[in-house]
Amino acid sequence: MQFMYAVPDDAWHVELSEAVPAPASWADIPTAMTHLPGPAFLLAVVPDEDPAREPTISISTVGERDIPYEVMCWYMKKITAEVDRRRTAVVETKKGDR
């Protein structure tokens, strides 16, 4: 799972992808990751500037794949926590502006 901020969207993008092996050349690097994110197959867009904007979930149509129920539940819990965190931050910021 990767989190990145998309300035044009004023939103966080939370991608879920299948892990792919890191390059073999990294094998001798003690702190190197063994796996990297592959192409995202789920994308949540979580607005953080406007709490009235609803989050959205996109499913990639590139290559068919089944998403195990437990993985989808885990991902949705993470997205729910991210939505709650972003909405709380907006409320706290507005309180501070008073």
Automatic annotation (TrEMBL):
Tree of life domain: Bacteria
Protein name: Uncharacterized protein
UniProt organism field: Micromonospora qiuiae
